[in-house]
């Protein structure tokens, strides 16, 4: 890859514009607050976070990073959206979150600086927002220690995902700001699995994330047709 940063300026601007609302559980980021306990427990189930060195790639306002630090991990959150990072830092200060820091750096640049440095790497709801997701997967693999875990979550690319994740969530239910997701950038599980294999990551578990708009409840399931999560491991 060239020296250009693997980020879409329009995507960064979009999330920076909303940064001040990140920690409002009734804002556009409400879905992230609601799914966070599910994601946290899922990650912690594979690799108990207490005492681990953890990297959260594309951390945004720090919802997942903060909760992992509260599980006893030493957490670094990285992002390229400056305003979101400032919100994350401010929240950590106000909440007195231990063992957490944030840095404005691309995952590829960090991989050059600190290869094989982390026990756990998380990259949630981020791959569908970058021009070259395979480059992010490679960098995550470079950053994790041999035997360490890398967790991804993203959105499938098919007609059902288009109807539920874009039309439903953004235009009908107004759960997310319009324009949050682009159909062409969504990633099929087979494509993400290929990127993982090419980056020497073993895909060990997949889970789907489902939502019922009537009960407003999320849960993990076997259905990966819309939102899904991968638990991968770098061979030790």
Characterize the structure shown:
This protein has 236 residues and is an alpha/beta fold. The chain has one domain: Vaccinia Virus protein VP39 (Rossmann fold), CATH 3.40.50.150. It is 38% helix and 25% strand. It contains eight helices and eight strands; from the N terminus they run H-H-E-H-E-H-E-H-E-H-E-H-H-E-E-E. An eight-stranded mixed sheet has the order 3-2-1-4-5-8-6-7. The chain is globular. The mean pLDDT is 89.
Give the class from helix and strand content and strand pairing. Answer: alpha/beta
Shape: globular
Please work out how many helical segments DSSP would assign.
Answer: 8
The CATH homologous superfamily: Vaccinia Virus protein VP39
CA radius of gyration: 16 Å
Main sheet attributes: strand count, strand direction, barrel closure: 8 strands, mixed
Overall pLDDT, averaged? 89
N-end to C-end Cα span? 27 Å
What's the assembly state of these chains? single chain
Number of E-type strands? 8
N-to-C order of helices and strands:
HHEHEHEHEHEHHEEE
Q: Work out the count of structural domains.
A: 1
Q: How does CATH name the architecture?
A: 3-Layer(aba) Sandwich
Main sheet: strand order? 3-2-1-4-5-8-6-7
Poorly predicted tracts of residues: none
């Amino acid at each position: 890859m060239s020296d250009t940063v693997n980020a879409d300026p329009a995507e960064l601007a979009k999330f920076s514009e909303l940064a001040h609302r990140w920690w409002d559980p009734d804002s556009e980021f409400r879905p992230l607050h609601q799914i966070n306990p599910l994601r946290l427990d899922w990650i912690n189930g594979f690799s108990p976070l207490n005492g681990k060195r953890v990297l959260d790639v594309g951390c945004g306002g720090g919802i997942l990073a903060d909760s992992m630090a509260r599980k006893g991990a030493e957490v670094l959150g990285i992002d390229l959206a400056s305003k979101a990072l400032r919100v994350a830092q401010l929240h950590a200060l106000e909440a007195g979150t231990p063992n957490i820091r944030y840095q404005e750096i691309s995952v590829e640049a960090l991989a050059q600086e600190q290869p094989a440095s982390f026990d756990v790497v998380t990259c949630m709801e981020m791959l569908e927002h970058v021009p070259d997701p395979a480059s992010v997967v490679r960098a995550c693999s470079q950053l994790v220690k041999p035997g360490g875990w890398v967790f991804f979550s993203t959105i499938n690319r098919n007609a059902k995902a288009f109807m539920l994740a874009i039309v439903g969530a953004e235009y009908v239910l107004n759960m997310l700001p319009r324009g949050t997701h682009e159909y062409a950038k969504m990633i099929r599980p087979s494509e993400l699995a290929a990127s993982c294999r090419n980056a020497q990551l073993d895909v060990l578990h997949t889970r789907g994330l489902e939502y019922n708009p009537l009960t407003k409840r999320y849960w993990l399931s076997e259905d990966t047709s819309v939102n899904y999560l991968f638990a991968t491991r770098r061979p030790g």
